[in-house]
Design a protein that fits this description.
By secondary structure, this protein is mostly helical.
Length: 92
């Protein structure tokens, strides 16, 4: 039984776009998936999986660096979020 079809292909491509930080790719494959009848919940599941696969190694590297340097290290995205919430007007 072959489960790899056009819909699955677009879900994989959505995940790859998230992993690659490619906005045009995400928009293209989101539209293609929507045209094929892929449910938003399935697209969201693909995005969440891609995010987890992408962020887990980065988080582990920060933990390793923190152990070597003797100080916990926060991800840049967490620090950027804090700065944005503080309203300092600066980018990452």
């Amino acid at each position: 039984m072959n489960i790899y079809n056009d819909q699955v292909n677009e879900l994989v491509a959505i995940g790859a776009a998230i992993a690659a930080n490619c906005e045009p790719c995400f928009k293209y494959h989101y539209d293609a998936a929507r045209r094929l009848g892929v449910e938003p919940a399935d697209m969201l599941a693909a995005v969440r999986m891609a995010q987890a696969v992408k962020e887990t190694p980065a988080r582990h590297m920060l933990e390793l660096a923190g152990r070597f340097l003797g100080e916990p290290i926060q991800s840049a995205s967490a620090e950027t979020t804090k700065k944005a919430e503080a309203g300092d007007g600066k980018c990452c």
